[in-house]
Design a protein that fits this description.
Number of helices of chain A: 17
Number of strands of chain C: 13
Oligomer: heterotrimer
Chains: A alpha/beta (about 500), B mainly alpha (about 425), C alpha/beta (about 375)
Helix content of chain A: 25-40%
Number of strands of chain A: 22
Shape of chain C: globular
Largest interface: B-C, 77 and 63 residues
Distance between the termini of chain C: 68 Å
Largest sheet of chain C: 7 strands, mixed
Strand content of chain C: 15-25%
Distance between the termini of chain A: 33 Å
Radius of gyration of chain A: 25 Å
Helix content of chain C: 40-55%
Structural class of chain A: alpha/beta
Shape of chain A: globular
Structural class of chain C: alpha/beta
Order of helices and strands of chain C: HEHEHEHEHEHEHEHEHEHEHHEEEH
Chain lengths: ~500, ~425, ~375
Amino acid sequence: MTPIIAFRGVGKWFPGVVALADVSFDLLPGECHAICGENGAGKSTLMKILSGVITDYDGEVLVRGKPARFRGTRDAERAGIAIIHQELNLVEQLSAAANIFLGRERRTPLGLIDDAAMEREAADLLAGLECPISPRVPAGSLRVGDQQLLEIAKALSLASDILIMDEPTSALTEAEVARLDRVIARLRTRGVTILFITHKMDEVFRLADRITVLRDGRVVKTIDRAATTPREITGWMVGRDIAGHHFHGPRSRGPKLLEVRGLTLPWPDHPRGHRLQDVSLELHAGEILGVAGLMGAGRTELLETLFGATDTAWTGEIRLDGRAVRFAHPEEACAAGVAMVTEDRKRLGLFPDLDVAANVSICSLGEAVRGGLVFRGREEALVAPPLRATAVKAAGPHAAITGLSGGNQQKCIIARWLLVKPRILLLDDPTRGIDVGAKAELYQIIDRLCRDGLAVILTSSELPELLTLADRIIVLAEGRLTAEFPRAEATEQNIMEAATGT
Amino acid sequence: MAPLGSSGGSGWRLPRHELALVAAMVAVFVITGWLDPNHTYFATWAESRDIILRNTAILGIIALGAAVVIIAGGIDLSAGSMVAFSATTCALLLALFAAPDDRRLVTVGPLGIGVAIGGSLLSGLLVGTLHTWLITAIRLPPFVATLATLVGLRSFARAMCLFVTKQRWGSESQQINVNTPFFAWLKEHNVVIMTCTFLVLALLTWLILSRTVLGRHLYALGGNEQAARLSGIRTDNVKWFAYCFGSLTASLAGIFLMADSSVAQPGNLARGYELNAIAAAVVGGCSLQGGVGTVTGTVLGALFLRVVIDAVSKLIKASADVYEGMIVGIIVALAVTLTQFGHSGQGARRLFPGGRGLAAIPTIAAFAGLLAMMGAANVDAFAGRTGLLGGAVAGGMLLLLATVRWLEGQRAS
Amino acid sequence: MVDGTVVPRMHTLITTAFVACLVAGCSGNAGTATPMAGGPAAAAKAPGVAKRFVFITNGDDPFWDACLSGLEEGAKRFGCAAAGITVSRDVNNASAEGQIERLRQYATQPDVAGIALSVIQADNQAIVDEMKKLQAKGVKVITVDGDVNRELYREARSYYIGTDNVVGGRTLGTAAKALLDAKGLTSGGYVQFAGFTDNDNARSRMNGVKEAIGDRYVERDRMADEMDLQRARDNVRNATQNHKDLAALIGIWSYDAPAIADVVTESGSRDKYVIATFDAAPLAIGQMQKGNIDVMVVQNPFEMGVRTVRLLKAMVDDDEAVINEMFPRAGMPDGDVHTTGLRVVVPDRSSPVKDGLFDSQVVEFLTLPDFTAWLAKYHLTGS
């Protein structure tokens, strides 16, 4: 059988990172094909290439046997490929029908928009998908599951016969998941080829005919479902060369600083109902607690709650030095000695218009003040030690922060928080988008800080990072704490199993 | 490693911007002084200077408030109405302290004056607080919140004026004459007092923005609000300061304007001033995206706008204010365009890409031609030939822009 | 590298072009210093001798268009071009601040020899101060149409040209009373509409109306629109809805007449009201022809314009003869006031408003056809 899509030696480099390397596998007509991999394994990059979002890559993609190089999403659409992103692409104010036909509106002979025709067609499409909504309802008022079907309807209206779904069930209720299963089955009877990305093993083994496992941008294996087991798949997902782990010597654990009991963070208007459910943990001075979990497992939410940065009211108990605390604003957390390095540097961390010194001193500028005024010299003296401690490479304290590399920007942000002299440092995926050399430097910095008595909670989307740095690792899955391992017992295999609910 | 040289660009951009403003201002002075048949700028320099200083002080005071709000990542559209509101508040408080039948408010004592000025500044603080509440608690976008007060405050001031005059004197009035000796004195020395107030306020604003923690937090808030919050900055407090400062400067301007015109006329006072103030801040280098801007830039921006407006009234002679909006518009567009080209990476963009670019060329040429024609209509020497002149300018512009487009095409291919 | 330099150069080019246009467009009167060659008495027009008279209005109103025609006619009649004098009009933005700013601006310009203005607020100290400063610099300052408060600030201007507004108000009040009586009414309310209720001429007229219309009819409101045409209409709408016993609508400023006529025709309530208005805006003339206005008391802005030029020219030339002719009662109370005549215009002879009601020394009684014939003579569209 000729593959409907064939990847041949596809590779993609981002500065400092290999996203995909020499990826080759086939997608057969009419099959349901699952792509599995850890965070950062290259799944999304692959999807972006296939849907024409990424246009410069190595190797080639054959569609129906012919080489194709899409220059935009339109090209991909024309080739019959539709993608349902995890973040749905709908105009919330427009009606369901208008969304389905966005950019390809049906017109009356006078050139006016023909709403009636579009609504008729939309109703037919939606009925075929067990989606009993009126085509006139604004898309924003629909439930997530219906919105997803709307996207699928849109794909069908494009006469797409290849449908790519990126974690389609991540926000669905059980009933909606069951309905999606039925829709997928029906689409397959029509000969639609389906490629879906997931890390939920039950889903993979319920739906897929074949499975491709990606790891670190490479294909580990493409295999028939019948020929494998969930355990084997997770093994392939994580099984990498683990040389270089555990490079640090033993650290001495100090007194207990932080204790969390039964922390629950509600999530209104979401089928899951909670972002965090009954999470308990404790943290001692001089130790690094790793938090593992897949995307959306609640890692960031956990740190934000500890930092007083969440708007939703939580229940449970957080004790700092044995005293119950409830931070209403990050400022209170700072004052209590808790600091947090946020996940998305550009969006949540950097001040692009301020220079390096100002970015570092922003939380503790008060110390450079005499008589109500900030003195430049004092500020420079203030930021010099943390900049040295984190080994930031910049032209000087007044260099533009945007001119620094990602790693140096991240070091600046850590330097910022060292200035407040915290006792607890929350690090949310601190090495994301940073090249390998800078990562190693950051590991050393974190290790040293910890030896100086700092307590650290570290999340990471890369398991080796946690295994390298953490003394203990807790695992979150869909907001629940599913496992806790001391360093000696933690392996990528058992963490991944706890995170995927295998 | 890190691109070491990249810091240079950012460090030098602002002073260059400000130097350009000063240079442009000098050019306008010299050209106008030369073209103006009266040579007003050379002949009666002191009076021209006073007019420019007085107007700059008013515009500048409001613009400083606008700049602080803009730097903090917001926008305050209500300044003009705030001016009217504060002037009305001041006059009404004076009325309460004047003798019962004194409709010209001559008889107000020091206490009444103090209360009136304090009250009108307080009104600024209250409106600023209201803005902050609407924006932070109700979560209205700043544009909407201050749009509401822009239309609301003026009308409120008018209603208040009717109500108080009716209660106080038995007959309604849409305006209140203010002939209090103190305000007459203020008006007598308005150039010195207003200019000094403006400069002191500018100095104070500069100190706050560049030498205090609060100032740093304003820039941080405007540059990245989420990061600011996650850095432990009480962003709501910082916003409160910004909007209060914006309203407070407007109420200060309101007191001066009331004194200067010896009347509080809420219906018409300072209509549209908010847009000129925002324009001054933008011309001075503030970015409406927030996080960027300086006090020196804003002061120079206000001065530059007023200099150009004044230059035009020296040249056009009568009804020069017809042209004011056009001038402000062109200056704002030009200033921001030039600032953008100052950034690296923007230079490679084409000015007239594709069909729309092509359509822009005759549009700009037509506007230039019409402008030249209307200007020439004021000149006897061009009588009967205004059409010719307009056509020539339009044609020249067309040719010039077409050449630019052609060059761009050459470069692209 | 080449790309990097070409583009900024282009931008500079375009910027220069814009600025050039701006300067070209704005340098407007640069040429007035050297007026066209070949005109009469070109020799007298050497640079530096050129002078200007400026007329500053209170706001934007059709009334001022007739006045502008008068200014032009005056400039022609009294040989301004030959004397190197240009006459221009500056339309104020209906705010006190606007008039103050304009007066200041003209104070810096040495070629301004005379200023006539319609003062927007009779009691405004700041406007008075600027007028005095101009006088101190030797600029001739007179008021036209709207005067300062004569009890307080008489010395801020040399003379006043305009309607005797109290008499004008009384005339309109008398006419309105005749119309109300003719309807068989014995009581009722009326509302007066003007741009500003604190303006000298509006206040005088309104007081005159109130005085002449008598106590049987009650003044319900004086409504100000701040020269906003839309608001003028809204005021009329609100008045007709708020006062149930309303019998007359009195328009005090020229644009109020069409505003009133429009509103009553739109609501179909024309017959309920006596409509008496000041001035004869082009639209008001049309409305009277359609029968929507009962009487107009018409000032003569055209003549005001003509006489403004005559007076300023005489003041600049120190022409005592002309000044004495215009102000024969100099030194006596209100001897510095020169009144232009008033006309009472009615649709036709059948109107209850009769010639005999008015002092023929002050008021000229005309029917609409006679009045439009006069307008046509001077190519005017309104008065």
